[in-house]
Specification:
- The chain is mainly beta and 361 residues long.
- The protein has helices at residues 2-18, 41-49, 147-152, 155-158, 334-340; strands at 22-33, 61-72, 82-93, 100-113, 116-134, 159-176, 183-195, 204-215, 221-234, 251-263, 272-284, 298-311, 316-330, 342-357.
- It has 5 helices and 14 strands.
- A hairpin with a 2-residue loop joins strand 4 (100-113) and strand 5.
- The longest helix has 17 residues, at 2-18.
- It starts with a helix and ends with a strand.
């Protein structure tokens, strides 16, 4: 009897720490993307005479997005909050027959001390349409025994829709630095981008390393910055397929990102405003003379984003955002530079509803 009483005495405090509200949010976003397939200027011109490049897509499109999120914040360890978050997102590019997708994520974060956290996350985008490509492992296309074989082959057999999945597992550690409310972050993630059966020669495994610093010591201003390095291994390189013998999509990439935001003190109409910019440099590792698309190729990808946020009510807020992105490619082959360079812009307005299930009180 006494043993049971002691056990009950220890369980009640933990039970109380678990009996907390569950927060949820839903969102609706409407926007526009000027270049949904990331076409270069040359490809845009070619799509007028070669309609297979576009498939059943337009160059630009309206975009509709929806999202739902649930967050649980128990105190499994006394005085240290635990964050559990599950999120589902949906995107629909209205003027594309293929570019609609779901994505899922799960995040677990454990508070360790003042501005100190350990975070684990998993995300999956099961199927994302990229564009139309030639399937060079298709015997109908490659190799042709004569020009007549090429003329007699049907267009439907030559050009195939390319899809890929994106899976990311990440671990992250955050800790304070000797500036008021500021901290640094270190993270490692394993990323897998695998394509549909016709394009498995493009499959990549990536190791991503990131370090960042978040300055919160200036009142009403937030400054965040990070640098990252990614190493991608083309895991199906020379695996026996015809196309994988002559191309290697492996690469190394460095990225720098910075963001500055202000609150209502310096933004009289909006509750918060911000600007961010990133520069990404990628170098492909292919040394194959039979691989002109990747040998000696590199690119610089630059993006600038602006956003503003306004609380409509205690539970509803709206966010307006826009970005411009430009990629400039360098290669030993001049045609590759024109083929793989592009620019695009987008803008969105997002409405979010936030509430909670407080079933314990």
């Amino acid at each position: 009897m006494s043993i049971s009483f002691v056990q009950l005495g220890f369980s009640i405090p933990l039970l109380n720490r678990l009996m907390v509200p569950i927060y949820y949010s839903t969102s609706f976003t409407y926007g526009y993307d000027s270049n949904i397939l990331k076409f270069s200027d040359e490809e845009k011109l070619d799509s007028d005479t070669e309609p297979w490049l576009l498939g059943e897509n337009a160059l630009s499109s309206s975009v509709i997005k929806g999202g739902a999120s649930i967050t649980y914040l128990p105190y499994i360890f006394k005085n240290h909050e635990t964050h559990v978050n599950v999120k589902l997102n949906y995107s629909n590019f209205v003027d594309s027959s293929h570019k609609q997708y779901y994505s899922y994520s799960f995040k677990l974060a454990q508070h360790l001390g003042s501005f100190s956290w350990l975070k684990l996350s998993y995300s999956l985008l099961p199927k994302l349409y990229l564009r139309e490509y030639i399937d060079r492992d298709n015997p109908i296309y490659y190799p042709f025994e004569s020009a007549l074989d090429f003329e007699n082959s049907s267009e439907g057999e030559l050009y195939t829709s390319s899809f890929f999945s994106n899976e990311v597992i990440r671990v992250q550690y955050l800790h304070s630095i000797p500036l008021n409310k500021s901290y640094y972050s270190l993270s490692y993630s394993k990323q897998k981008q695998y394509y549909n059966g016709e394009f498995t020669e493009f499959d990549l495994d990536m190791n991503n390393y990131k370090g960042g610093v978040f300055f919160r010591n200036i009142p009403h201003i937030k400054i965040s910055t990070n640098i990252s390095k990614s190493v991608a291994d083309n895991i199906t390189f020379q695996d026996g397929q015809v196309s994988s013998q002559t191309k290697d999509r492996g690469f190394e990439q460095n990225r720098f990102w910075i963001s500055i935001s202000i609150d209502e003190r310096y933004s009289p109409f909006f509750d918060a405003m911000g600007v961010s910019a990133s520069i990404e440099n990628r170098s492909f590792s292919s040394s194959l003379v039979t691989d002109p698309l990747h040998q000696g190729r590199s690119h610089r990808d630059q993006k600038v984003s602006l956003w503003s946020k306004k609380n409509i009510s205690k539970k509803i807020d709206t966010k307006i955002s826009g970005s411009y992105r430009s990629r400039t490619t360098e290669s030993t082959k001049e045609f590759v530079e024109g083929l793989k360079s592009f620019n695009k812009y987008d803008f969105f307005i997002k409405f979010t509803y936030n509430s909670n299930f407080n079933i314990y009180y």
